[in-house]
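To assess whether the prediction recovers the assembly geometry, we first specified each molecular entity separately, as shown.
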Amino acid sequence: MKIAITSEKKGLRSKFDLRFGRAGWFCIYDTENGEVIFTENENKDANGGAGTKTAEKMAELNVSQIISGDFGPKAKALLEKFKIQMVILDEGNKTINEIIERLKNKSTINSN
Amino acid sequence: MKIAVASGKGGTGKTTISVNLFYFISKEWDSNVRLVDCDVEEPNDVLFFNNPAIQSREEVYQLIPEIDTEKCTFCKKCQEWCEFNAITIVPKLNFAEVDASLCHSCGACSAACEFDAITEIEKPLGTITNYQTDFGKGLTEGCLNVGSSMQTMLIKKLKSRVDNNDCLTILDAPPGTSCPVVETVADADYIILVTEPTPFGLHDLKITVELLDELQKPFGVIVNKAGLGNRDVYEFLEENNIELLGEIPFDRNFAVSYSSGDLLQNIPDKTTRVFGEIIQKIRRKEVVK
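The predicted structure of the complete assembly is given in tokenized form:
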């Protein structure tokens, strides 16, 4: 399955971004083959609706789970409809790499 | 003839000035005057009137599009036309929905849709109420539903209800300098800016002056709570050649009477004098004649 992690910049050394709709980038990690893709958030500076646009993008990208600092009410309502699991992680000092390593070790945050 | 009362900063005294102007204009200038509370997020002008009888109350609506996913081809044209990111479409999930809280009811999506998949449904926006008052022609108040962010739309409807009134209209604007304020002052003939002689009052006054200059609106300033703070606001007015219409001295008793809703009871002589002078100045304006 595909997991999206909100990232401040592109690259595994980037900091985890606590924002969802206004995150800088998304790291899409595929648990099947270990593939990692970074995609820029083109909606991060939208006047409004950044959260809903990003939720839509997650559905388009076939993401099953998102790890972010928090989710706004509009994004949350949509993600629930799309049956995409939201995981809240309150560790803004972590890098994307550290989070992926944790996922690989299947420790605390992967429900599957 | 429309006079709007605005300020950048909240809590400077827009309501105090509006209610008093309404009262004194009706007594000293023209009893054919109406007060319109455009601070639709928390209208409170009505609190200062004795037994304000409701003459009429109207529920107003905004049109929110609904997408019929049976007819929708998920072409996303409506989404491209939407300026507000209010439409979410995921073709592979057969998903097409409008977020009502983001929708500004502009109608672009309906025009964009070639498949007749969009229907516009009325959704309550707020109320517009007419009150009878002991003096003047009465008070009209807009009140936005809790949770809505469509102040501007309600203010537009509110103004349309009083547009044909053949009387002097005082528009009590919401605070700030964003869209709802622009909408309130947009077709006013004259604007009274209320400020206080504090750094905060001056900071926000400057932003509001910039706005009115851009809109090319004639305006003057009333300094409320005079005696507080410093002289910077007066220097700003002088440097920019902005007319000082009057000053209302800071007075604890005044604040007490406001808090108990007694603004129009036992009005102190000096208040009567200040507003008398302000009205004289406004009456002499070319735009007001």
